[in-house]
Protein 1
Amino acid sequence: MEMLNLFRSAIAANNRERLADLLEEVQAFDQARLLLDLTTDERQVIYGLLGPEMLADILQELDYDEQLPVVEELGVKRFTQVLNEMSSDDAADLLGSFKETLAEKYLGMMRREDADDVRELLAYPEETAGGLMTTEYVAIKKASTVKETIESLRLIAPDAETIYYIYVTNNKNQLAGVLSLRDLIVAGPGETIGSIMSEKVVSVPVTMDQEEVAAVIDKYDFLAVPVINDDNVLLGIVTVDDVLDVLKEEATEDIGQLSAIRKIDELEVS
Ligand code: ATP
Ligand code: MG
């Protein structure tokens, strides 16, 4: 509440520097909550202030029904820039809810490589591993050394959904091993990935139902699980935060059913 008032007065005073400072102080999730409490006009000031990366982070924190008005307010050009910066899975979820012609329009305006990732994900049914996964994972070759891998992580990290697991693939992009960032850091710089990776990789098929995917992650206590096709080709990863959303949806459905049952009971009593 306090923060909201500080925000409002900075907007009213058109004090952009102060606003930028205030925004810096809070997490994307809290920025998103603040944004929803503002008026449309006040939000426009924020949109003008933030770059597409920060706007993408904020949009990803909103539920679907909260995203739509923000999308509308951003306008076509700005929203397209934001789409380019969103995780491919979040962008696909959002565009997947649009009419096909509208989704195509945005995909056509997006950066080619980002649009290709999103198009690929849109092809998978929503409630499967494919519909849940992101294509922003870290994969390297067996022959790389630890030192080389740490160097390439510096380049890949900003765009990867998580860098905690590093997947090892062969020349056909088939999944051959896995290691954690911890495994990498404690190894000597000259060791090869092949010598420190684990070959016993738990993966899920792209067609697996999302609730089963959640159960796999829960069972092994992983932060993410790789998604493969019938040829063991690595297609993406499902991260624990996406699985939490699935479990939350499920719980809400169950609670919904419970209250429906209670209503029926009450009707029968009266
Ligand atoms: P530990 O639990 O051993 O202390 P950690 O807490 O750093 O390690 P965890 O997330 O628990 O990391 O992962 C433990 C191990 O599981 C890591 O060595 C990692 O390589 C491995 N691992 C990660 N993903 C998979 C997977 N999909 N299949 C098999 N092993 C995996
Ligand atoms: Mg552990």
Protein 2
Amino acid sequence: DELGGTRVAVIGAGYVGLTTAGCLASLGHRVVCADVDQEKVNALRRGEATIREPGICELVVDGLASGRLGFVLGARAAASEADIVILCLPTPMGATGAADLTTLESVVTGLRDVLLPGCVVVNKSTVPVGTACRVADLLDRPDVSVVSNPEFLREGSAVHDFLHPDRIVIGSAGHDLLGAERVAGLYGKLDTPVLLTDSASAEMIKYAANCYLATRLSFVNTVAELCEYLEANIDDVTRGMGYDARIGTSFLRPGPGWGGSCLPKDTVALLRCAESVGSDFPLLRAAIDTNARQHGLVVDKVRKAVGGDLAGARIALLGLTFKAGTDDLRDSPALAIAELLAAEGAELLGYDPTVNGPVAGATDRVRIMGTAYHAASGAVAVMLLTEWPEFRALDWARIAGRLGGRAVIDTRNHLDPLTLHRAGLSYQGVGRPA
Ligand code: UGA
């Protein structure tokens, strides 16, 4: 018809699904995005973005206005008229640590009898190696191609990452390349390398990339710890490492440990995968253990800063999300550290620009305050846990005036030590000499 473009169904309007739907509509395709949550579908139909992500609201509003983007309740309604069906479903960590495919499998089974002949089913979620073949088996539709097309976007820059990817990876289950080529056609307007491979390799690329990134950070965090003992400066060390083109400069910032909805889940899942084939991945296990140890090292620093005993010590926590630029608290290192501090009897006052009230479970040990200044009131130490830009612009003299102690522990090397010293505070970063 007159709109042109490929008819795409995106199943799941979560983080990856909504970004995919909005971006594909902006690339000229006709996209119907389905979710099981009626409230979410209603909000999206009104043009309200249901995730916090720069650019997503404009994509939803423009997509609705152009007629290229629609939202429906239920996967079957969307998939029954699509040439390409993209699954963007949650694959949470199951009881054993392996990814839980219950939702994915039940959706796939439900689509079996509505898929158009010759359509392509694409999986975008992070799934165990072998899942695309399993989906093909469940579908049992020789006329339908199944491909794996993992997504590499980061929270906080999801739309940008989707439209400016480093690469696109498409793997076919079975031997037909036709399905993979049709999926590649969706991205024809993007200027980026496209890797066509088999589905097992595509699924492994996703895990291997995230696990490599996590391992790299555990490595850097431990080098930063050694820098503290040896009076070296991690900022210069990583800069010097990064000039080596084989290493590169990005993803080398030390911190309180890596978190979020992907790295922690995917590292455990790949380790379980290695065990499931009778092998092991000791390097990955060490990366995971090093991350837990990192939380403990941060707590050691705070305990020392308050004179050796955390019981009854009031501590201000600046930043709670797993990184800046997102409101996501899932597997946030800040909350893991809060848990450890609380277990030693510390009293925690927290401030985060995206957290307005108590968050069930996650933050019930932290009293959420309306400003950083309120959080600092009467505290013996301030900890910076998330690198929100606004923390650099705080009036640190005003904070100093409200504190009952002097210590500022910057777990992200985000603050300027000189500014803090001028405010009369005692600054401690990560891997920076005192
Ligand atoms: C991560 C990957 O970076 C994406 O490529 C991938 O698509 C995504 O997971 C996913 O699988 O969906 P994301 O979880 O949004 O993206 O977060 P990152 O920006 O990778 O940060 C992860 C953690 O590492 C955060 O806690 C962050 O603070 C920490 N980090 C990151 C550092 O401590 N130092 C750095 O230099 C970079």
